[in-house]
Structures are given as structure tokens and as C-alpha cells.
Amino acid sequence: MATDRPARNTVVIVDHPFGDVEAEREVATRHGYELHVHQCASESEVIEAVRDSKVALVNQAPMTRQAIAAMASGGTIVRYGVGYDNVDVSAAVEHGVAVANVPDYGSGTVADHAATLLLTMLRKVPEYDDAVRTRGWIAQSEVGRVRDFTVATIGMLGFGRIGRALHTRLAPFGFEIIVHDPAADEEQLRDLGIGLVSFSELLERSNAISLHLPLTTDTHHIIDERSLRLMAPDAVLVNTARGPLVDSAALAQALNSGTLGGAALDVFESEPLPSDSPLRTAPRLLLTPHTAFYSDQSLTRLQELAADEVGRALRAEPLRCRVA
Predict the structure, then answer these.
(1) pTM score
(2) Exposed/middle/buried for 318, CB within 10 Å: 0-12, 13-18, 19+?
(3) How far apart are the C-alpha atoms of 186 and 291, rounded to whole Å?
(4) What are the residue numbers of the active site?
(5) Where in the chain do CATH 3.40.50.720 domains reside?
(6) What is the mean pLDDT of residues 263-292?
(7) How far is the C-alpha of 46 from the C-alpha of 293, rounded, in Å?
(8) What range(s) does the D-isomer specific 2-hydroxyacid dehydrogenase catalytic domain occupy (predicted)?
């Protein structure tokens, strides 16, 4: 049930990764609002930061039921980025708080990073680099099979904005590309030369799999021990989507046992990656610190699009990317 809490004359940034927040400050000031900037990590910090606020912009901080209840009725939450699993959407609906995301600020940037990881792993660059540094030199064949890209199959689990952008980047290399996505248009995929396959077929046929799914109850640990067993022993897995799509313990075990060729992860079940995570010592694993979205240009786009959404909220206009 929505609460009847009058709004303070404030727009709140709960947490952010940016060098400055001038785009957000400009739009708040233009509409007669103060901008309050925080770097909250805990629920209690968020509750105090957003109390009676009209609009809250959030990056990674937890927008829990209690935090949302502290906001003014009729307020708006704008999530910096695509995923919004750190926002309790059902609580927002109950309290009459709108939720919007920014799904299109960095699709190309994430696709660039996914392509970089995928090509690097298929060419076994980390293994060659490690061998030269630690052993001086090796025979090329010592790292196992290295296929021409023209005879390799790439499986995409999900084919939304980022999946489509990744396909555009990979197509010139000559890969066979297959997709599993229940929402995909089979005829459209056929026109692109892409096969639409079942989940099990994608796992079994792919030499590399790239994940491009939202995190839901259905997709949580979609890559688990069973899924990894279906993959070829020299296949590689790339995740630039959401960390909990992959069962970290099962992945570490597959890499340690040699039943999976390799993996590259930009996102993790817990971030920062815990110091005792088995992923830190797993072989043939390339790690980046949730940076696929990051470039000078993508961050600028993200802030500008988020600020535009704040302006719509303050003018009581329909939100461009409302999710609840």
C-alpha cells in the first residue's frame, strides 16, 4: 500500500561510480530541487539518505523494502544501468514509487568487452602469456586445441540489445552463431544466419558461450553443475551479464577438474569478489572487475540518460524506461 509521505525538495544520489555528477545537479537545479549526493553501502545508510526524497538515483546500493518505504509517495527510483535486481520492485509498486532503468547507455561497450574476452579465451592468450612469463617458452600445441574462428561455434544465451551488438562484432570473423532465447524471433535470426536452438543443444554444440540474460528466479544459476557437464571439455564460458547466472563453486570445480576449457568473468555472485573465492585460484580463468560497461563515453551517456529520466519524473511526465 502506498504511503502518504510529502516529498522534500530533494533529489538523492544514493551511490555512484562517476567522477562528477554535474548532469544530475543541473537537472535538479533547473527544476528547483537540491541534489544530495551519498555513497551508501548498507541498508541503514540508504534509508537515511532517501528519507522523504522525490527521486533517488542508485547504482549498487540496496533499495530494500524499508528504504523504499522511507521515500515520499509518488517518488521515483532511477537505476544507473540495465539490471535492477538491487531494487525491491514489488515493494516499490506497493508504496507507489516508480522504478526506471537505463538499458541502452552502453550496449556497444559491453559487447566490445564480451567480444574481447571471448576472442582472447578462444585464442588461449592468457595461457600463452602465463607460459612465456613462467617457463620462458612452450610449444604452441601445449595449450590444447586452437580452432580457426571459421570452424568455431559461438552460443549466445539471450539475444537482446547486447547480444545483437555482440553478433555484429563477431560476424566478420566467420563464426557459426547459435542462440537460445525463448523471446527471440526465429525468422529474424534466420535472416541473420543465426540458428535458434534449445538450451541443451546450445550447451552441447558451442565452443564458446556468452551470457546475455537478466537475473530472475528462472535464470539464477542457469549455468550450474549439470549445465557445465553438458558443455564440451574444451569449451569456454563468458559472463558479462549478471554474476548469479553462474554457480561459482560449480564453475571453479569444472575448471579445476579440467572438464571445462576456460572461462572469463566480468561479474560475480558477490562483489567485490571475496578473497577466499575458489575462482581466484581456478586455472584458465580470466577475471575483470565488473568493468564491461565502462568507457569514458558510456559513463557520460549513462549519466545524461539518467538525468533525463529524473527530469521526466520531476515534471510528472511518463518515464522513458519505466520497469515498475
Answers:
(1) 0.90
(2) exposed
(3) 32
(4) 242, 271, 290
(5) 10-105+297-315, 106-287
(6) 97
(7) 24
(8) 22-323
Q: Is the pLDDT of residue 5 over 70?
A: no
Per-residue pLDDT tens digits for 115-155: 999 999 999 999 999 999 999 999 999 999 999 999 999 99
Question: What single letter denotes the amino acid at residue 305?
Answer: L
Chain centroid to Cα 25, Å, comes to 26
Cell of 143: 595449450
| CATH domain 106-287 topology | Rossmann fold (3.40.50)
Q: With both helix axes pointing from N to C terminus, report the angle between 296-314 and 107-122 in degrees, rounded to the nearest 10.
A: 150
Class of domain 10-105+297-315 (CATH, top level): alpha beta
Confidence of residue 51 (pLDDT cuts 50, 70, 90): very high
**Secondary structure (3-state) at 69:** helix
Question: For 235-263, what is each residue's pLDDT tens digit?
Answer: 999 999 999 999 999 999 999 999 999 99
Instruction: Label residue 9 by pLDDT band (50, 70, 90).
Output: confident
Residue-level length of the chain: 324
Task: Compute the half-sphere exposure of residue 269: CA atoms within 13 Å on the CB side of its CA.
Answer: 19
Task: Determine how many CB atoms are found less than 10 A away from the CB of residue 163.
Answer: 25
d(CA 238, CA 286): 9
C-alpha distance from residue 237 to each of 39, 170, 171, 244, 249 (Å): 33, 16, 19, 14, 14
Q: What is the pLDDT of residues 66-125, one digit of tens each?
A: 999 999 989 999 999 998 999 999 999 999 999 999 999 999 999 999 999 999 999 999
284: amino acid identity, one letter = R
Write phi, then psi, for 222 (nearest 5 degrees). Answer: -65, -30
Please give the Cα distance from 242 to 249 (Å, whole number).
16
Angle at 318 between CA 323 and CA 24, to 5 degrees: 85
